[in-house]
Amino acid sequence: MKKSILFLFLTVSIGLFAQKKAQSLSFRVVPLGVKGGIDESNLSAYMVAPAGTKDYICMDAGTVHTGIEKAIANKAFTTGTDEVLKNYIKGYFISHGHLDHVSGLIITSPDDSSKTVYALPNTMRMLEDYYFNGEAWANFGDEGKSFLIKKYHFKSLIAGEEANIHNTSMQVKAFPLSHVNPYESTAFLIKNSDSYILYLGDTGSDSTEKSNKLQLLWQNVAPLIKAKQLKGIFIEVSFPNDQPDTKLFGHLTPKWLMKEMSVLNELVGGNGVKDLNLVVTHVKPPTTRIKQLTKELKEGNKLGLNLIFPQQGKAFGL
Ligand SMILES: [Zn+2]
Ligand SMILES: [Zn+2]
After folding, report:
1. Over the Cα atoms of the chain, what is R_g?
2. How do 89-93 and 56-59 pair as beta strands?
């Protein structure tokens, strides 16, 4: 008798907890690829939608098709690959022109539906000049070289200016990042109603890049953290701490990430970045190195960030 009452109590409390958690989630994330190298079936790409909708956007597009297949196998979606690719993904946000962030977009383009590709002008120029140029690949876009197939609308964003995300209720603001100065990468601040997420493409720290791009970005998002409106930051950690600063190639290590988080923490004030969701992206194989950097991140997490290590095809909420 006692046992069954306890069981009932536990079931009800877990149920209530789960319900509360589900209600407070603002975005659903389905990672299509989570790594920063070598495994071409698992490269940076994150589907993000306002919770309870199918209006996804894809942040970077390193791996698309395999990621959708894995997500379906994991029951993150209950429909076919074609439906997810063509109807769920409403647009792509490309942080920079490196192949590990665009190869999925290029390869799936003949089988994709009409939608918008968003990027800052430098990245858009790279897409048009080097990939969708009628030589490396047909031009599926609506501007650039060669015959224009016009399946994709190439929408160049203006840094710092809010733009609507077509076919969704979301808006975006893009900020330039430094990824081996002066090479430019991008952070996208995604807004839905009064909730936000921040996705950063590849970036080094301001110290190693001799830049102030992250400082400027942190100044912009600190008020959102203070107001509890920023639901998560996607940021890269490519190497463990023993990677020499001369061999970072515009990337972060746990040490450099935590230095940047300290800057952000100061700007936020009060409880700072405590409990803020931090999604760790772009971890570079081999597995032993990923294990090492994961351990270093957990040990170095003095600010109390909620570290999230995404898995390909496994959905989570923010
Ligand atoms: Zn990369
Ligand atoms: Zn890169």
Report:
1. 20
2. parallel
Q: Kindly state the tokens that stand for 201.
A: 């493409």
Q: Tell me what pLDDT residue 2 has.
A: 57
pTM across the whole model: 0.93
Report which of residues 7 and 220 the model is more confident about: 220
**1 Cα–ligand 1 center, Å:** 58
283 phi, psi to nearest 5 deg = -70, 130
Reference 165, options 229, 93, 232; nearest CA is 93
Give the span between the Cα atoms of 41 and 64, in whole angstroms. 9
Residue 187 — very low, low, confident or very high, per pLDDT cuts 50/70/90? very high
Digit-coded pLDDT (tens) for 33-59: 999 999 999 999 999 999 999 999 999
pLDDT computed for residue 24 by the predictor: 80
Overall residue count recorded for the chain in this entry? 318
State the distance from the centre of ligand 2 to the C-alpha of 42, rounded, in angstroms.
15
Q: What's the 268 CA to ligand 2 centre distance in angstroms?
A: 28
Using an 8 Å Cβ cutoff, are 26 and 192 in contact? yes
